[in-house]
């Protein structure tokens, strides 16, 4: 799978791409990431990639010409989305990441300042938001999308079955608590059932923990889960 990132700050991605599972996935050829800087396509000695907005206002806007010129150098694979990271977009969810993981190519446009000239949106096929808040740049949500999508690609996670039991997977419940050695730490004990070796009892305990944790921490998800239970029983 190919990722193309249009960013004024390609150095932002270099350390994350050289670390952990992302680095391993890239080394295995599971995914490839290409960084393109619109500033390299500017004209003039000042390499100006931004300008003042028409009509006045605070802040600067990324100019359309460098973005279009950079975009035109990218290959176009059959199944492709061009994503602009913006608080105005649809929420980034696990369901959305799973959809992106089925594509051949994702192009990520990282905004800066007050955003991009509106005419750039003619290139965009999808707008995605990390949440209802504003950041200084689009690189942070772009990295989150990149990480969340690549980890879903076959071969990235060693034990792919572990993906089935994570939060937001399957029935949409949160994950159950996890414990490792030592069995007692600062007076906190690992639940006895996990030490029992009784796989049926462990599965039941984990299921109960998922339901209760979701009910307490995410009432919205719990309500959706309950509604689905009612549908299944009808």
Describe the model.
This protein is α/β, with parallel strands linked by helices and 234 residues long. The protein folds into 2 domains: 2-150, Alpha/beta knot (3-Layer(aba) Sandwich), CATH 3.40.1280.10; 161-233, tRNA(m1g37)methyltransferase, domain 2 (Trp Operon Repressor, Chain A, Orthogonal Bundle), CATH 1.10.1270. 33% of the residues lie in helices and 17% in strands. The longest helix has 19 residues, at 199-217. The protein starts with a strand and ends with a helix. The model has no long low-confidence stretch (mean pLDDT 93).
Overall tally of structural domains: 2
Number of strands: 9
CATH architectural label of the largest domain: 3-Layer(aba) Sandwich
Which structural class matches the secondary elements?
A: alpha/beta
Give the N-terminus to C-terminus distance in angstroms.
41 Å
Q: CATH superfamily membership of the largest domain, which one?
A: SPOUT methyltransferase, trefoil knot domain
Please state the average pLDDT score.
93
Query: Helix fraction?
Result: 25-40%
Order of helices and strands: EHHEEEHEHEEHEEHH
* Rg on CA atoms, Å: 22 Å
Number of helices: 7
Q: Can you summarize the main beta sheet?
A: 5 strands, parallel
**Which regions have little confidence, pLDDT < 50, spanning 5+ residues?**
none
Beta-strand fraction estimate: 15-25%
Overall 3D geometry? Answer: elongated
CATH class label of the largest domain: Alpha Beta
CATH topology (fold) name of the largest domain:
Alpha/beta knot
Strand arrangement, major sheet: 2-1-6-5-7
